[in-house]
Q: What sequence folds into this?
């Protein structure tokens, strides 16, 4: 935009704004030359002229002549012979008038309404001296000044334009991506700086700009004559850019004029820039101040708001062990659904196993099995500070069931002697004492610190033998039988209320005493005595758990669905798991035996500690499984075996089979990698179907078990179905 | 991806021009008063000074033609013309090639048969290079030859256009030249013929037409500027000799 006659433009604009031209008239219409508007004075207008108008109209403006050609549509100031005598009369050119070039001040041009000029040319005129004048008075009913015709237009209801500083874009791009922020002017200076600093942010900014709904507009201030800023001697490029941003903001503000209620707000996180902007009379705020002051602040705050509003759900991501592109998030904030499936790279959104993520549910119509995941700022949400963990909490072994050696978590003397209830020795204990009736209904319960002396220490096997031996009627055996009867009653009650009986085959390796290589596989043999001890352990856990209250979960979530118990807490000998230690301390505090442990009062610290324990527990289980897997590999390394197996899961590309003899599970692919499969997956029946062969869950198959050693250091147990014969594509 | 964006989504190039905008072309004829003809041309930051000497006797009698003037072109780039200080090597092939290109372009346009047994020397000096050196050299040569009063059939107005990262750009700078394919054309505006054309680097055949038309459009704009310069210069000359009253 060229500014060629600033003074004249300002003067005429003011006259228009004051409405001085209302009821004035066009006194001269010279076809092919000009149509001229009369100067404003009491005789020219028919209304009463305001004091302000007459004062303004009396003013004259200096000559601002240019070589702009006087052609049809040009607005040119009238004047007397004095070049500096321009007042309020001006002409609208009706044709080319070369003799006016460089002699009269051009201040505007007819952009729209040439038909009005054409109509003027049709009026009847008379000649009077040098003037050709209309026979009838042509009155101007109203002359107004439109508001500044600023592009971009402010959206409906918006009160301000935002101008962003580079630091806001670089650090608050997530915020800018929220749809609540609109009507933003993005300066070229900012774009360039962002591009040079961080291309990824630049691309994100570009895609916001491309979204028309967002109303982000680019202003190429560097290429604009009035907003270009040259670097001053000694000025750093950063300072120059800041100045360029301020100048552009100022320019926008000046374009708006004094229009009521509309402002240009500079958002910058740079305190110095803010200070300089305020000095220059600009409105500016830091992004933090601004967001906090906004009514819709919650919408702008990142994930936290979504979580609070229930739009997003937070949970820990577990990547499927069979498919790295699929995972599930366990959330507690969602009623009825605790596990949300994420399928595909897009839904996973770069999250990896163990991440704390926020997920947004897809519309219910799309609830086949997909949800959209939004990767939370891991640092913010998973603020796990491992250093502060209790050392023991970190070392928690989760009772790793290694196949070969036992790793102990506490000193041997403590673990194997003092904390073991040896026969006929006094031992300190924490006891739950029940009074029960014949149907095993608990009549009263007492939890206490006790000193106990065991009558006998029996292995499960010994206990079982005693119970089974009808000849034995000593008090010890009888009491065992009573306990067993009660345990059965308890189990029946649990089963009646819907407890699950989860039994996966657990295998034990028989190791060669010399080489420690497995020579055979045996199943753990579970006896009634096992079940008996288990039942009372459960009862103890359920009983003492009633004492606890949780600060992080609702009572509805206390339910242990596998055991069908309304409440459950792990509570066994504290030498194995740190969690048990915690439970013991809490319980002791509850029965007012000792003071409440400090760490138990801090909800977040406790949650963190428990999360760590859970993680350790999971790791321990994985380690246990890995240990079994390792021994399985060693076992099968030397001998390829054929065994009966059952299909336990059907997938699109194969089936998961279970070999009960060895307790191993594995996937058998129906087609080699890259090969076309002869099988088609039928989701309705959950079956893989090929001509002449169908694989369904629970189908019995015969599999060949071998160890694939083709990849060095990565041996893999390989299962292949040999019966039925699988067709190949 | 390159960090440079040769045409922003707003439609601006790095130097603030739009795609179809040529750089400011400033020219001054008779820049060297002692030369038979001379012109100084600035095309953005590319600055070229051309001096014409002749027609005069052939320096080398052996090469003179009995029916026409011999046209000799030489091109020198000053050591500081580009960013790095680089003295022009003796027998610089690029320089020789450019000089030959100018000679081949102008030979058919100049009425050399009017000056038998004589020689006309065109010396092109590149003061500063920022893309479009060939175009600037050709434009400056046109003006210098006119200044020297040598009979010509037409102007030769040169401009370049190119395709840079898929964007069609007019009058490429050195930076833009480095990133894409550039086509320079010399237009004979009177006869609407193309007197010179050179394509540097590869361009898909399908887009040659497009780029060529773009460059020709630029050359027409150049013609307007050169014509105005010649008129002004002629007015001045006539005025200074008292042939017309100012």
A:
């Amino acid at each position: 935009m060229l500014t060629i006659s600033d003074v004249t433009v300002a003067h005429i604009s003011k006259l228009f704004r004051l409405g001085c031209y209302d009821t004035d008239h066009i006194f001269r219409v010279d076809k092919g030359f000009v149509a001229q508007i009369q100067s404003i004075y009491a005789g020219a207008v028919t209304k009463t002229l305001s004091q302000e108008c007459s004062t303004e109209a009396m003013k004259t403006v200096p000559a601002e002549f240019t070589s702009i050609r006087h052609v049809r549509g040009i607005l040119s100031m009238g004047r007397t012979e004095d070049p500096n005598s321009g007042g309020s009369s001006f002409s609208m050119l009706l044709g080319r008038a070369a003799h006016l070039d460089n002699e009269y001040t051009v201040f505007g041009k007819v952009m729209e309404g040439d038909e009005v000029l054409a109509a003027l040319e049709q009026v009847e005129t008379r000649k009077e001296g040098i003037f050709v004048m209309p026979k009838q008075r042509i009155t101007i009913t109203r002359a107004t000044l439109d508001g500044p015709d600023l592009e971009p237009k402010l959206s409906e209801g918006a009160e301000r334009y935002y101008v962003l500083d580079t630091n806001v874009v670089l650090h608050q791009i997530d915020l800018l991506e929220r749809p609540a922020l609109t009507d933003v002017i993005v300066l070229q200076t900012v774009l360039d700086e962002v591009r040079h600093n961080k291309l990824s942010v630049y691309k994100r900014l570009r895609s916001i700009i491309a979204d028309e709904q967002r109303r982000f507009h680019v202003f190429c201030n560097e290429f604009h004559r009035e907003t270009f800023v040259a670097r001053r001697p000694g000025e750093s490029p950063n300072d120059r850019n800041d100045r360029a941003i301020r100048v552009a903001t100022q320019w926008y503000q000046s374009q708006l004029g004094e229009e009521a209620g509309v402002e240009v707000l500079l958002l910058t996180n740079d305190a110095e820039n803010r200070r300089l902007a305020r000095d220059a009379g600009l409105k500016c705020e830091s992004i933090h101040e601004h967001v906090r002051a906004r009514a819709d602040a919650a919408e702008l705050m990142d994930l936290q708001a979504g979580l609070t509003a229930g739009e997003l759900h937070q949970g820990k991501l577990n990547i499927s062990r069979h498919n790295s592109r699929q995972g599930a998030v366990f959330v507690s904030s969602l009623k009825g659904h605790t596990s949300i499936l994420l399928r595909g790279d897009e839904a996973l959104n770069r999250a990896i196993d163990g991440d704390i993520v926020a997920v947004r549910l897809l519309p219910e119509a799309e609830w086949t099995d997909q949800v959209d995941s939004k990767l939370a700022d891991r640092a913010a949400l998973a603020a796990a500070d491992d250093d502060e963990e209790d050392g023991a909490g970190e070392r928690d072994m989760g009772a790793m069931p290694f196949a070969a050696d036992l790793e102990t978590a506490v000193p041997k003397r403590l673990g194997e002697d003092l904390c073991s209830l040896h026969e006929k020795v006094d031992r300190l204990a924490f006891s739950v004492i029940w009074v029960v009736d014949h149907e095993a209904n608990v009549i009263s319960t007492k939890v206490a610190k006790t000193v106990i002396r065991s009558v006998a220490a029996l292995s499960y096997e010994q206990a079982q033998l005693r119970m089974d031996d009808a000849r034995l009627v000593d008090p010890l055996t009888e009491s065992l039988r009573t306990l067993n009867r009660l345990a059965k009653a308890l189990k029946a009650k649990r089963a009646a209320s819907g407890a699950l009986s989860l039994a996966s085959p657990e295998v034990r390796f028989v190791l060669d005493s010399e080489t420690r290589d497995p020579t055979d596989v045996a199943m753990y043999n579970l006896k009634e005595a096992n079940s008996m001890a288990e039942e009372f352990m459960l009862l103890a856990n359920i009983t003492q758990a009633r004492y606890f209250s949780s600060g992080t979960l609702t009572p509805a979530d206390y339910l242990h669905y596998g055991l069908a118990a309304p409440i459950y807490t792990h509570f066994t000998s504290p030498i194995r798991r740190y969690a048990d230690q915690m439970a013991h301390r809490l319980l002791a505090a509850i029965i007012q035996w000792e003071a409440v442990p400090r760490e138990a009062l801090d909800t977040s610290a406790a949650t963190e500690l428990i999360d760590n324990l859970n993680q350790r527990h999971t790791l321990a289980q994985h380690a246990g499984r890995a240990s079994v897997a390792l021994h399985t590999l060693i076992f099968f390394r030397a001998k390829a075996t054929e065994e009966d197996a059952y299909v336990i899961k059907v997938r699109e590309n194969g089936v998961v089979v279970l070999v009960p003899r060895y307790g191993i599970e594995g996937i058998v692919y129906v087609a080699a990698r890259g090969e076309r499969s002869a099988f088609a997956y039928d989701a309705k029946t959950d079956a893989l179907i090929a001509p002449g062969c169908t694989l369904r869950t629970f189908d019995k198959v015969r599999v060949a078990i071998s160890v694939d050693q083709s990849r060095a250091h990565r041996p893999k147990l390989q299962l292949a179905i040999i019966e039925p014969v699988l067709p190949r594509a | 991806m390159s960090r440079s964006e040769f045409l922003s989504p707003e439609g601006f190039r790095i130097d603030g021009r739009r795609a179809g905008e040529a750089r400011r072309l400033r020219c001054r004829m008779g820049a060297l008063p002692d030369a038979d003809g001379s012109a100084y041309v600035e095309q953005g930051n590319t600055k070229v000074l051309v001096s014409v000497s002749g027609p005069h006797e052939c320096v080398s009698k052996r090469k003179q033609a009995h029916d026409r003037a011999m046209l000799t072109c030489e091109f020198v780039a000053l050591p500081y013309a580009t960013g790095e200080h680089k003295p022009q090597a003796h027998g610089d092939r690029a320089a020789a090639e450019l000089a030959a290109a100018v000679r081949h372009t102008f030979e058919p346009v100049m009425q050399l048969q009017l000056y038998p047994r004589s020689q006309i020397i065109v010396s092109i000096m590149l003061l500063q290079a920022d893309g479009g050196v060939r175009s600037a050299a050709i434009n400056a040569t046109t003006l210098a030859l006119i200044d020297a009063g040598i009979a010509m059939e037409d102007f030769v107005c040169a401009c370049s256009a190119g395709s840079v990262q898929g964007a069609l750009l007019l009058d490429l700078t050195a930076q833009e030249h480095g990133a894409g394919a550039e086509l320079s054309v010399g237009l004979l505006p009177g006869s609407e013929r193309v007197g010179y054309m050179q394509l540097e680097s590869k361009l898909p055949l399908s887009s040659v037409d497009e780029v060529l038309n773009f460059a020709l459009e630029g050359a027409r704009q150049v013609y307007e500027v050169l014509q105005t310069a010649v008129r002004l210069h002629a007015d001045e000359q006539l005025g200074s000799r008292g042939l017309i009253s100012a």
Notes: The longest strand of chain A covers residues 442-453. Residues 369-407 of chain A have pLDDT under 50 and may be disordered.
